[in-house]
């Protein structure tokens, strides 16, 4: 492995700006790495070598012309296949969109291009972002670089695995119930779900519109902050985009690493513990809480009784919204069409196409949502879930009057084996137990590695939660904890992963 | 709460425009029944006088000025869009018959 692919995004950008390495050399090193390892990982659904090299050449030309380069100019990135890319395949991990070439760029895609980020390709994911293991991809599962028999989390397993296997220093994910944070946790990488409305959803194929949020994935907290600032901010093309300044997350990450967190109040949520939590996960989490205390944080226990009902509320709200959003796949305007032989009506063609084009989890969720929204059941299911959502928001509000941030394990266990929960939806859904409440409340959350579980040697993630539009607090606390852990370990956690 | 039967799944599949196979009907009936049983827990929480939340952000309608958009604003190209359609004819999407069924 070359040194180039092991560098952080900040280091790579600085080296390119200083002329120590060209953007083309950086892109080529990463494309070589992909060619060498991705047949074993399956992090990418599509590698756009030509597009990546063209973008890299443009960065080198800018530098040669004496133009000032942005903070991520020339840095390679894996883009989750849920974001449209003009003329570059976008499948959302589904057969129903196989071969589709979008006629436009998502706002996130456009902003990455404007920041001179080099998009290497599209990363694998659970179909339409529904899943916690990337096993629901129609194009085969992604494997966890720590153990190829294990899942890399999901739905953004491709993005997280690309980072952990040094195929890209940056990636973009989307988080509806934990799809950025849980893959981050089980791969030993950093993932952030920004405040709902913080990053534009234009061109991000919709799963559950009131919960979906795009965000940054990286190997360090500072790199995540740099990417966060590149993609965040108001977008008139998204009616839910917040029209306010982006929280100063890069400054917060730098402050956390240098000034620490003395005097900050950190809440430990009582509900995120107990049955189902792996001993080694709990151990690393508790050690991290003690470390935060030793850094000068005041640790407070928080009681949020409604959080026990977040998982059932989520699995009514998200499928309900998904059943409506995925109605767009009607075989008429784009994507797959099956049964158009002159003998079937448009409605029959739609049903035949959706049957052939959607995988089992997508079908389950569409039908579950249809059930929860149907007359006679609406009040008991969808309506009741919306009321639980109100109680969850109230519990967060009460908590944030007492503390600046909340912390918990990101997910109750380390990476499980591929196939272990594949046909047991409820067991799969438990992976999102700690991440879901934040999505329901629209708040911000981060996962960062806090050690390896002693019993299996696999990464454990620590989750930090902050109020809406206080994303900077995640980075302040995350960077402080990251610096303290790095001092203990003496090297980045990914140095401990087996060589590929 | 009522259990999800095979007939119920067939009904949901029709509403969802999914032409499920016989084997899928059995499989999904079992799984959806387990999921609905688990999510029904939301009814255990007392919610009298609690208003529902459909969206975490305060939602307001968003208007824009009725002006010509500046160059560079994303606009879909008709030819490019139709090139991605399953079938197109005369600058339009071609669809299977929608009238005179049966």
Output the keywords.
heterodimer; A: 500 residues; alpha/beta; 11-stranded mixed sheet; 41% helix; B: 102 residues; mainly alpha; two-stranded antiparallel ribbon; 2 strands; flat
Tell me, briefly, the overall form of chain A.
Answer: globular
Approximate strand percentage of chain B: under 5%
What is the 3D form of chain B?
flat
Distance between the termini of chain A: 9 Å
What's the number of helices of chain A? 17
Number of strands of chain B: 2
Low-pLDDT parts of chain A are none
Strand order of the largest sheet of chain A: 1-3-2-4-6-5-10-11-9-7-8
Structure class of chain B: mainly alpha
Strand content of chain A: 5-15%
> Radius of gyration of chain A from the CA trace?
21 Å
How much helix, percentage-wise, in residues of chain B? 25-40%
For the largest interface, the chains and their residue counts are: A-B, 74 and 57 residues
Number of strands of chain A: 11
The description of the largest β-sheet of chain A is: 11 strands, mixed
Assembly of the depicted chains: heterodimer
pLDDT averaged residue by residue of chain A = 97
Low-confidence stretches of chain B: none
What would you say this structure looks like, in words?
The complex is a heterodimer of chains A (500) and B (102). Chain A is α/β, with parallel strands linked by helices. Chain A contains 17 helices and eleven strands. Chain A starts with a helix and ends in an 11-residue tail after the last helix. Chain B is mainly alpha-helical. Chain B has helices at residues 6-15, 22-39, 78-83, and strands at residues 88-89, 92-93. Chain B is flat, with a radius of gyration of 23 Å. The two termini of chain B are 38 Å apart. The model of chain B has no long low-confidence stretch (mean pLDDT 89). At the A-B interface, helix 11, helix 12, helix 13 and helix 14 of A face helix 1, helix 2 and helix 3 of B.
